[in-house]
UniProtKB/TrEMBL annotation:
Residues 1-40, 639-668 are annotated as: Disordered. This is Kinesin-like protein. Keywords: ATP-binding, Coiled coil, Microtubule, Motor protein, Nucleotide-binding. GO terms for molecular function: ATP binding; microtubule binding; microtubule motor activity. It comes from Arabidopsis thaliana (Mouse-ear cress). Residues 238-326 form a coiled coil. PROSITE patterns: CH, KINESIN_MOTOR_1, KINESIN_MOTOR_2. Residues 19-30 have a biased composition (Polar residues). CDD domains: CH_AtKIN14-like. ATP binds at G501, Q502, T503, G504, S505, G506, K507, T508. One of its GO terms (cellular component) is microtubule. The lineage of its organism: Eukaryota, Viridiplantae, Streptophyta, Embryophyta, Tracheophyta. Residues 31-40 have a biased composition (Basic and acidic residues). SUPFAM superfamilies: Calponin-homology domain, CH-domain, P-loop containing nucleoside triphosphate hydrolases.
Length: 668
């Protein structure tokens, strides 16, 4: 029915209103106003009758011919209409049967009632006048002034071809047809009893049993006497109905028991999961306490070393004071010798004595200098021992850093190696914001989508994501959930980021952004590269990183290097900043396959994979870490009929699936 509605009118028009009405031309070609009013009034009364008979249709009061065609084109409404007017008159086929089969059943019933009919082509794509006239005749035949609904004709089943009637009731038509015919033409009692001895009642549907009971009651009410044969028939029917009801009750009990067992099993699994989770939490607390104790020990050692250094500084200051006192003492001795020189009044003796005194002073200074040198050597030896302790503590600190790095990546793995986010694109300018299919977005990633074309439980569908970003979400908010993964790349892990959706859904806006000149509009690609190079610069004292870039295109199961012609073994280009990567991306985008669609003037028709390979060498241990960041720009996943792609640029869905798998292989 869905495909046929699209041929006749849009899906919205089935539930909308239309002001169009057909007009009736006179013999000379001019419109007759009175004929138009009568036709419009009769058309509206027919729509009212359909809504009263089948309330679930909910057709507009002024429904156009195209809306009426879209509603009747699969034949289901026509068969339900006859069943409503005369219960049990039409047997419906399975949901897999085409619509023309139901229409042929309806037309066969119309021929049997000698009412005006129409052709299948009139309902599918022809003029609706014959269809409307046939429905009006059917309405008149079941109105108060037409046939009586309680007549035998209204209650009988119209005989259809054998290939039109399938299902449970077919058993009754095959196995119990002799019994039904016997009851209708009033055969002898002996024949009826022979039918009761067979298994025809067991093979008859419940609906047919009640029809038999209805006929027997009518006949008994006319004859006003009940024979033994009719009593046997009624007793057999009641026993079969009771047996079926008992079987259904037993089936319901078995179903409830199986459901209870499933609930108990789910509760046990939940308890086991909670126990494992509590065990993991306890282990995490133990590891946390161990690291806190190690940190406190390192802090205490640092404080002790600081106290020792302060003591050594105070000792050095004391030695400086002693040197100053010694200098003062030298000055005092010099004055004393000067006084002796004045006393003895002998210039030569004074010079000799002064020379000897200076010699003695020199020897004393030399001795003091040697003593000070020995003290300095002892201090240096002591400081060397302390320095080795500090180096050992630094080595333990490096081990702690490696452990923290491992725990960080384990936390990322616990959050999920594969994370799926949904971003809702805001309405474009000029679009009606009320025409949205989104009914609800939850804080834990729930998304409920409404489909007005389906009835019952299929009207709403629930999707579960890691997180749902609303139309007001900024580029920064979208990137914050993927930012912790950038650090994992430098720790030797592979990360792949890609956007999936139809053309015009905002993939390029999210991944690249409308413009890289504005910091607010920058996409995930630019922010991820900028954060990656920022982390390499901050770690350059401990780890030396080398960054290389590859960019390939996957188009119709063919892989092509967008930066050169070297595939296989795509070329690797060394980069040192985000600007270098963006320059190579611009070169690759110029070589990428694009095409025009009704949704975008310039749309990517292939998958592009930008791979950023990072190689890090630890300065102290010389260990090597390798990680990769894959930024994938997938082509649009919409249907051909929606985007109206050119045939040369269109790949079947199988090709799209295979190229997606190839891009996954390239990313790993």
């Amino acid at each position: 029915m869905k495909n046929r509605i699209k041929k006749g009118s849009s899906m919205i028009s089935v539930y909308g209103r239309s002001d169009g009405s057909s007009s009736i031309l006179t013999s000379n070609g001019s419109e007759s106003r009175e004929s138009i009013d009568d036709n419009k009034q009769g058309h509206q009364s027919l729509v009212e009758w359909l809504n009263e008979t089948l309330p679930y249709l909910n057709l507009p009061w002024e429904a156009s011919e195209e809306e009426l065609r879209a509603c009747l084109v699969d034949g289901t409404v026509l068969c339900n209409l006859l069943n409503q007017l005369s219960p049990g008159s039409m047997r419906m086929g399975g949901s897999f049967e085409p619509g023309c089969v139901n229409i042929e059943r309806f037309l066969a019933a119309m021929d049997e009632m000698t009412l005006p009919r129409f052709e299948v082509s009139d309902l599918e794509q022809g003029d609706m006048i014959r269809v409307i006239q046939s429905l009006k005749a059917l309405k008149a035949s079941f109105s108060d002034d037409g046939y009586d609904k309680n007549t035998l004709f209204a209650r009988r089943r119209w005989s259809l071809p054998a290939d039109h009637s399938k299902g449970v009731d077919s058993n009754f038509n095959d196995g119990g047809s002799q019994f039904i015919e016997a009851s209708e033409i009033n055969t002898s009692h002996a024949q009826i009893l022979d039918s009761l001895k067979s298994n025809s009642l067991q093979n008859t549907s419940t609906r047919s049993l009640f029809d038999m009971l209805d006929r027997l009651l009518d006949e008994s009410s006319q004859k006003m006497n009940v024979s033994h044969v009719y009593v046997s028939i009624l007793r057999g029917i009641v026993q079969v109905v009771e047996q079926r009801i008992s079987n259904q009750a037993e089936n319901l009990k078995n179903l409830i028991r199986s459901e209870e067992k499933d609930v108990l099993q789910i509760e046990k699994e939940k308890e086991r999961s909670n126990a494992e989770l509590s065990k993991l939490k306890q282990e995490l607390e133990i590891v946390k306490e161990t690291h806190e104790k190690q940190f406190l020990e390192l802090k205490l050692n640092a404080q002790k070393a600081k106290v020792e250094l302060e003591k050594q500084l105070k000792n050095s200051e004391l030695r400086v004071v002693e040197a100053k006192e010694l200098e003062k003492l030298c000055e005092t001795k010099t004055k004393r010798w000067e006084k002796k020189e004045q006393t003895y009044k002998s210039f030569i003796n004074h010079q000799t004595e002064a020379l000897q005194e200076l010699k003695a002073t020199s020897m004393s200074l030399k001795h003091d200098v040697l003593k000070i040198g020995e003290n300095y050597f002892q201090d240096l030896t002591y400081y060397g021992i302390k320095l080795r302790g500090v180096a050992h503590a630094a080595k333990n600190y490096q081990i702690i850093i490696e452990e923290n790095r491992r725990l960080y990546n384990e936390v990322q793995e616990l959050k999920g190696n594969i994370r799926v986010y949904c971003r809702i694109r805001p309405f474009l300018q000029g679009q009606n914001k009320k025409q949205t299919s989104i009914e609800y977005t939850g804080e834990n990633g729930e998304l409920v989508v409404a489909n007005p074309l389906k009835q019952g439980k299929d009207t709403y569908r629930l999707f579960k994501f890691n997180k749902v970003f609303g139309p007001e979400s900024t580029q920064e908010e979208v990137f914050l959930d993927t930012r912790p993964l950038i650090r994992s790349i430098l720790d030797g892990y592979n990360v792949c980021i890609f956007a999936y959706g139809q053309t015009g859904s905002g993939k390029t806006y999210t991944m690249s952004g409308p413009s890289i000149t504005s910091e607010e509009d920058r996409g995930v690609n630019y922010r991820a590269l900028n954060d990656l190079f920022h982390l390499t610069q901050s770690r350059q004292n401990s780890v030396m990183y080398e960054v290389g870039v590859q960019m390939v295109e996957i188009y119709n199961e063919q892989v092509r290097d967008l930066l050169s012609q070297d595939v296989p073994d795509a070329s690797m280009h060394s980069v040192r900043s985000t600007e270098d990567v963006l320059e190579l991306m611009n070169i690759g985008l110029m070589n990428r396959t694009v095409g025009a669609t009704t949704l975008n003037e310039k749309s990517s028709r292939s998958h592009s994979v930008l791979s950023v390979h990072v190689r890090g060498v630890d300065v102290k241990t010389e260990s090597v870490l390798r990680g990769s960041l894959h930024l994938v720009d997938l082509a649009g996943s919409e249907r051909v009929g929606r985007s109206e792609k050119q045939q040369a640029n269109t790949s079947p869905p199988e090709f799209f699936r295979r190229t997606s798998e190839n891009s996954y292989v390239c990313s790993n």
